Amino acid sequence: MRPNERFKSLLTRGYLPKELPPPFNSKMLGASGDDLLADLLIIDKNKKFKSSYGRYNHPKNNISRRQLALLNPINYLYISDLISREWPAIHRRMTGLLCSSSPIVFSKTSERAIVKEQYTAFSDRMLQILAQSDRAIRTDISQFYGSIYTHSITWALHGKDTAKALWKSGKLKGDLGQRLDDLTRFAQDEQSVGIPIGPDTSRILSELIGVALDREITREHPSKYYVRFVDDVFLGFEWETPTLRPLSTAIGAFSQYELHLNEEKTEVVDSYGAEPEDFVAELLSYQLPTVAGEQKRGLDYYFGRVAWAAKSKPRKNYPSLAVIYLDNFDIRPTNRTNYVAYLLRTARSYPHSIENVVVALINRRNSGWSLPKQIIGEFCDTMIVYHCALRNSAEVAWCLYLCLILKIKISRSSVQSLSGYLDSVCALLALDLEEKGLTEIKLEKSLWRSVLTTNGFQSEHWLLAYEAPLKGWLKPLNWGYLTGKNMPANTLFSRQVSFYDSTRPILTALQRKQRNLESAIDRNRQFSSLLESYFW
Predict the structure, then answer these.
(1) CA-based nearest residue to 386, from 341, 422, 417
(2) What angle do CA 454, 459, 460 make, to 5 degrees?
(3) Which of 20, 93, 350, 532 is 20–30 Å from 472 (CA)?
């Protein structure tokens, strides 16, 4: 069976996490998925290539972090190929209930194969449930992606009892669920607990399990009082219903799939005392004054409110949203120094905002601003040294990218800290900086060269082991793992397929709005199709 034409874009889009700096493209550059697969199957007929995925440490909010996965492209091709060929069967298990406000939506125009899920639909549905019931339980799954049991993919497709019966009778061999299970394990050093966080394929697999949870929950709880957003669930009920009843329903459904309730995020929401996202509403209605003096006071007030909101709800990404919102306003020349200072202070205090701060600074530079490079350089050096010590990939990577775009040299102390930090994303950015003469001293590369070995492409540092030699930044002693005839990496290397492009432009605020609009159009069109009968 050939890949479903509608979803073939999954083959070469959406394999790297969207949180990486722009040079790390979510598209494989230089070859089509069909061509790569055809050659790979000559080398690896049974698709048993096994690897470890890379890790990218990213701040989830102000108090927690998550490990995103840099999935090996060979494994990603295999998983996405199977999903695209078997999409009708997978999609059948995802439709019918309409309890999910995070359905899988494909797009040809968005940066990734799958459109980012929108929280708005979930928020609206919660409001509607509270209009029909007196109270609600809101909770989510503890470490959802990290605790998914790969064997539960088969359970989600067949039902747990049926899947276990098929397994005992030996009838699961060659089954779709079993093949998805195998390919997922092969992509993570054969681990069966957890699935990689970041690639679009994992988003599909997690939603498949999420819909299976919907079925379990709605057996006991009315579907009109229930909604789910990825792993966040909301169950409405009446005053006379004991609180433990809907809670035990959720716990029971989670346990069926070896998942666990997140006690810290479990709460009873009273329809009379429900707290709306008041700061988001305040943020989106705020108008920054245009007169210079009033605007200065407006900026002081604005960031004061942001600090208050971040302190009151540290799990919310209010500072990050606040930085994005200011892209809508023209900052007067006399206030630009303070504006930049506020941005840098926000990034220092709330690391999850680092991406939006960097994007805001670069876009302002692109619109003609003269930025204080010395101050920004000192900020980046401090952040690089501090976060290298903590092994925080995201903060280091985005500061390196900012220096790369603004052509700011990183200091001796930053170079020394980077040379002792084995992280593929940060190493490639640092090597690019050195190539462009933007390091005060030469990088010490012995630690990075240590991954250029026979098993380097199958290790968690595959991205560095592949891309650095491709760019000519590092030279392995033995090129066999990249150029050998029977090596999967050669399928990519011989075509000069790249995963890093420093010339890739950053999106302007207007382009980001346009892309989000196009994605929203795709999403709304396909979401409405879920209301129609299944037509595949």
Answers:
(1) 417
(2) 155
(3) 20
